[in-house]
Amino acid sequence: MPGRAADRGQVPLCSAAAAEEESRAGAEGSAGGGGAPERQTIVWRNVVLMSLLHLAAAYSLVLIPKAQPLTLLWAYFCFLLTALGVTAGAHRLWSHRSYKAKLPLRIFLAAANSMAFQNDIFEWSRDHRVHHKYSETDADPHNARRGFFFSHVGWLFVRKHRDVIEKGRTLDVTDLLADPVVRFQRKYYKISVVLMCFMVPTLVPWYLWGESLWNSYFLASILRYAISLNVTWLVNSAAHMYGNRPYDKHISPRQNPLVTLGAIGEGFHNYHHTFPFDYSTSEFGLNFNPTTWFIDAMCWLGLATDRKRATKPMIEARKARTGDGSA
C-alpha cells in the first residue's frame, strides 16, 4: 500500500506525521458514510511519477530476451524479498503483531521493506490498522466502495481524506514507536530506499555476472518494483471485490486465489479480515502461503516466536454464524 516517500527525519514521529498529513488533507470534507468526498485534490506529482514508472516498466518487457537468465532469476528473487518485506514484515509482524521476531529478523524485514518502497513501516502499519478498523468508510485509505481504480491506485493520486488522518490519530501506535528498528528505518527511509530498492538490485547483476547496468536497472529495479506495487494493490482492490466470503458475508473482503498466487499468501482476505490476529492469514496454513512458510522457517531457526492462530472450533463457529455457505 504505497504512498509518496516523505521526509522521515523529524522526531517525535507521531507529531511530525500528524502535522504533515494535516497539511496534505487540505480542504477535503469529512463525511463518514463511505461515499466519495465532495472535493478531491489531485496530487499531480504522484500521477506523473506513477505514469512514468509504468511506462518504464512496459519498456522493460522488451529487454527480457536480451538479459542473462541469472538477471531474470535475480529480479524474481528481489521480488520475493520485496514481498516478504510487506507481507511478513509491515503486515503480519508490525501491523497485526501476529507473531514476534527477534532483532536479526526485524532488521532483515526492515531492509526488505525498504526494497518494497511502499512507505516506511510506521506509516504503512498505522494506515493499515486504520484500514482494518474503519474498512470501507472514508477513514479507509483505499476505500473499495469508491471503485476498483481508487482502491487499486487512485487513492495515491488524491490527498488523503481527512477522516483517514483524524481516525489514524486515535489509534495506539506506541508499540511501533517503541521498536528501534522501526524508528531507524523511518529516520533513514529515503537513503534506505535508494540503496535497497534501486542500487542493490541494479549493481549485483552488473558486478557479479557482467550484466549491463541498463538491463539490471530496468529489470531488477523498475519492472520488479512496478509488479510488486500492483500485486500489493490487488489486495486492496480485487481481494475486496471478487471472490467468495465463507467466513463473514457482511464484510467486503473476499477469498481471491489469483491474488493469493501473486501476493504470496495474502489473498485469503475474507479470512484475514475476520481473524486479523492469525499469523497465517488463512485457515489452510501451508496451502500456497509462502509468507507462512517463511515465518514457520524463522520459528524453526529460533528467529520468530509466539505465532497466533485462530482455533478450528472458532473458525467453524464463525463460518456457521456469518459465512456465505461457500467452501
TrEMBL record:
Keyword Secreted set for record: no
Domain named Fatty acid desaturase: residues: 73-276
InterPro entries in the cross-refs: Acyl-CoA_DS (IPR015876), FA_desaturase_dom (IPR005804), FADS-1_CS (IPR001522)
Primary localisation category: membrane
Superkingdom: Eukaryota
Location in or out of the cell: Membrane
Topology relative to the membrane: Multi-pass membrane protein
Domain characteristics, as noted in the entry: The histidine box domains are involved in binding the catalytic metal ions.
Family (UniProt): Belongs to the fatty acid desaturase type 1 family.
Name of the molecule in the record: Fatty acid desaturase domain-containing protein
The organism of origin for this protein: Pipistrellus nathusii (Nathusius' pipistrelle)
